[in-house]
Amino acid sequence: MHKRNEMMDRPVINNDVREFLRRDQKQLEGKLLEIEKWANENRVPVIPHETVAFFKWLLPLLSPKDVLEVGTAIGFSAALMLESMPRDGHVTTIERNPDMIAKAETNFKLLGLKDKVTLLEGQANEWLEKIKSNSKDFIFMDSAKAKYYSFFPECYRILKMGGVLAVDDVLQGGTILNDEKDIPKRTRKIHRKLNEFLDVVLDHPAMDAVILPVGDGLLMITKRDEADFSFMKEE
């Protein structure tokens, strides 16, 4: 059911500091804590606790009411965001893996969130094209890393002016700056496409962007102006 992801074991910061961030920051409670523990024990790739703590701090400040997530997995991050959003907030989340969809639906039901979540089943690129422009306050992209480049144009179009796009796992266990020849062949496409993605967004005049060294690197983008990124879409 779950593919091994070796990047889960490669901290982008000192390992002792990482463990401190995961152990000593405020922990979750109740059923959401149980889901987090289950995911960690079963090696299911959900956002690590330092990212959890950051979202728990960030979302109340942004107070988004309409959120899009690309990559539902077992529904943990969607549930976490809803816990930190206004009561009338809603999350639309996209997932293609049938096993993940089934587990996410179970978790949403367990947490009493079925009315607050719209789970779209299928390919993200197809669903993204159908979502209205400038309609989402916050977008969390945590899907196939090699697809970030081609998903970005639609995500940026969908994001409201002043809205925030969070993109997870952009540092690849600290290997993002390595020469491509030193990257295992099976992950070279991810390495190349992530670098191409970062080359576009980090210094683009239409947005403010910053990478935070939490988890495996969390890229935060604020939309400041409209821009055409159609050149990034797959043919």
Describe this entry's structure for a reader:
This protein has 235 residues and is of the alpha/beta class. It has helices at 15-24, 30-41, 49-62, 76-83, 98-110, 124-128, 148-158, 188-201; strands at 66-70, 90-95, 117-121, 136-141, 159-168, 207-212, 218-223. It has eight helices and seven strands; from the N terminus they run H-H-H-E-H-E-H-E-H-E-H-E-H-E-E. Helix content is 37%, strand content 19%. Strands 3-2-1-4-5-7-6 form a seven-stranded mixed β-sheet, sandwiched between helices.
Computed CA radius of gyration, to the nearest angstrom? 17 Å
The helicity comes to 25-40%
How much is the average pLDDT? 94
Ranges where pLDDT stays below 50 over 5 or more residues in a row are none
Please give the count of helices: 8
Silhouette: globular
- Under the CATH scheme, which class? Alpha Beta
User: How are strands sequenced across the largest beta sheet?
Assistant: 3-2-1-4-5-7-6
Structural class: alpha/beta
GO molecular function: O-methyltransferase activity; S-adenosylmethionine-dependent methyltransferase activity; tRNA (uridine) methyltransferase activity
Catalytic activity: 5-hydroxyuridine(34) in tRNA + S-adenosyl-L-methionine = 5-methoxyuridine(34) in tRNA + S-adenosyl-L-homocysteine + H(+)
Function: Catalyzes the methylation of 5-hydroxyuridine (ho5U) to form 5-methoxyuridine (mo5U) at position 34 in tRNAs.
Protein name: tRNA 5-hydroxyuridine methyltransferase
